Amino acid sequence: MVASWTDNINLKKVCSEYRVGLWQCPQFLFLIMGIIIILAMLVTYVVASRYQEPELAALTVLVLTAILFALGNLVVKAFEKVALSSRSKSEFISIMSHQLRSPLSAIKWQLSLLLQGQSSKAYSTGNYLETIMQQNDRMIRAVNDLLEVNRIEDNDLILRPQKFSLKNLTSKIIEEYNKYASAYNAQISLLADGELPEVFADEERIGRVTEHLLDNAIRYSINGGKITISLENKENKILWKISDEGHGISPAEQKRVFEKYFRSPSAARYQTGGSGVGLFIAKAIIQQSGGEIGFSSQESKGSTFWFSLPINKTS
């Protein structure tokens, strides 16, 4: 009982559990408001009893009211953050249950057929095992994304920057995705000026960012079209762009594109997969690497996503 009571008054511990600072924590703000209300009553009483000027008492009340109003605004914002966190949790459960259920169902179905000995010449045991491996990789990627989100939220995202060629990395990823793109009747092209300077960043994680942006471009190019990736040297940074001729993003959705667990209604409409954390992770990686990330889009005309990375080591 005593331990529970002491835990409740340990505001720093309570706020850390919410993953918010003291000035964003409802319990702390309510405590501050309570203290100010008590002080306001005392100050108003002292001013009213010692001084005859009503203007001074009124001014004191106005100042304290303004302070309380500002704190009330902070309380509202704190509750909004908690509400958004709750919504994100619900979205996370919904999205991840779908993301994990689909490959698990596929694996179960493939194993069931193998156990029943229903392989054929058209679809051999090797094909079944390859499908199982693909679905297993899909689940591993989903879990890795969750771990990455958790690291970002805990400010524990550790990057291992080094010099590498972003052009060579992009060429390698395009080669790996060409077969996947052909299934969507999409054509990938790379435009880069000669020899570009190397960038200084975490090659593995930048590879994930590049893969995610390319994967998105392919997924939303359902009717086919050109996907163009370009690289250019710009002001001591390498600017990387990818443009598609897909469905684009509506103005109402654009402000939420980099939010955690956000998936646009068009993603469901066109039955594209994804957990809604790829762009959230990409933004965190690029910004922590000393670069910038952004996009432009028009409905029914396509989208262009871009990011920049420093050429030299950042301090």
Automatic annotation (TrEMBL):
MF terms from GO for this chain are: phosphorelay sensor kinase activity
- Superkingdom, according to UniProt? Bacteria
Catalytic reaction equation(s)? ATP + protein L-histidine = ADP + protein N-phospho-L-histidine
Keywords from the named record: Kinase, Membrane, Phosphoprotein, Transferase, Transmembrane, Transmembrane helix, Two-component regulatory system
What is the protein name stated in its UniProt record? Answer: histidine kinase
EC numbers, comma separated: 2.7.13.3
Q: Note whether Phosphoprotein occurs among the keywords.
A: yes
From the UniProt record, list the coiled-coil ranges. none
Q: Which spans are transmembrane here? A: 28-51, 57-79
Whether Nucleotide-binding counts among this entry's keywords is: no
Please state every residue range assigned to the domain named Histidine kinase.
95-313
